[in-house]
């Protein structure tokens, strides 16, 4: 039976980063009709009630119905080491990340963490994520199986590394290619799963491995490819010494077939003009990871790239990022915008966390917005989830002023309900 969800609704007609906040549309008494796991209609509550008298009603009152959050870059295996103190990128990888990732050669551990991670996402209103796994194929199987059990649309891939990583966490050019290919064939397009070709970053791959993965991408050009780019200055200097012939960091990917419009480049903070131009020219996606960039001390992403039309997604980068919450991530993006003189409007922040990330992941035809025909992944936001937020929201004159305190101060308590393909995964009052 069709279900009609009533409440405030938020949707987008364009990209508010380019078109301004007017690209957002708010209905103070709207509705979303869900049928067969998809959005069948959207409009005002009155119109939908009249047009669909047989639908079951779920009334969310004054709460805000939105598309579920889309997290465009995360490392599910780092769930257990989130918020580890005091290191910068290379030390942080060696001290915390690599020892933890070694544990994923145990499929039972991988399954336990994958389930725990996805449940944390659902509690925080994130319905789609693009995650790195570890070098172990079983870590990929565990993740996709956990997502399938929850009905979630996810993208993920085996993280490939054949140098500058400890024994036990290295593959080879050949095994990276062959294992990625086998996983891609097993998972890509199965239910809601998408396989992502995943070289970790150029310091941990030999040119041979980058080339092998570039060849795999060329043969599977419908897949996404994800990696890291220009996150910290030390890292960039290291890349320069490892690839002396490269024009810049991006060239270490470009030279091996790893630059393309379905490429997701995490961080992308310290870009050279050539890199910026080239990324824009090919239509690649830059993924802004604001809590990670401050937590690991990487730098301030230039959101001016997005306002001038670059394809930008928003991401937690768990566990270099210090949160599982896209609300907290929006708050950090706002603060970094302020430091760079670009105060992002709440409509722009919300768009980045939903449709913008879906667009960066080339999934906006399926998720990321409350639009007819898209999959019914949506959340219900309580705009007064704590006393601190409630007292500020009570003074609001419009939706944006009511929503901004939740963006800045909200957490999983603000997510009253999470629906995946129309099914309640976190229920009102739970
Ligand atoms: N660069 C290469 N690997 C990683 C990672 O796991 N996290 C972050 N933040 N940066 C990286
Ligand atoms: Zn990352």
UniProtKB/TrEMBL annotation:
Keywords: Hydrolase, Metal-binding, Zinc. GO terms for cellular component: cytosol. It catalyses: guanine + H2O + H(+) = xanthine + NH4(+). Its cofactor is Zn(2+). GO terms for molecular function: guanine deaminase activity; zinc ion binding. Residues 65-424 form the Amidohydrolase-related domain. Its EC number is 3.5.4.3. Pfam families: Amidohydro_1, HUTI_composite_bact. Gene3D superfamilies: Metal-dependent hydrolases (3.20.20.140), Urease, subunit C, domain 1 (2.30.40.10). Residues 30-55 form the Aminodeoxyfutalosine deaminase/Imidazolonepropionase-like composite domain. PANTHER family: GUANINE DEAMINASE. Catalyzes the hydrolytic deamination of guanine, producing xanthine and ammonia. Belongs to the metallo-dependent hydrolases superfamily. ATZ/TRZ family. This is Guanine deaminase. The gene is guaD.
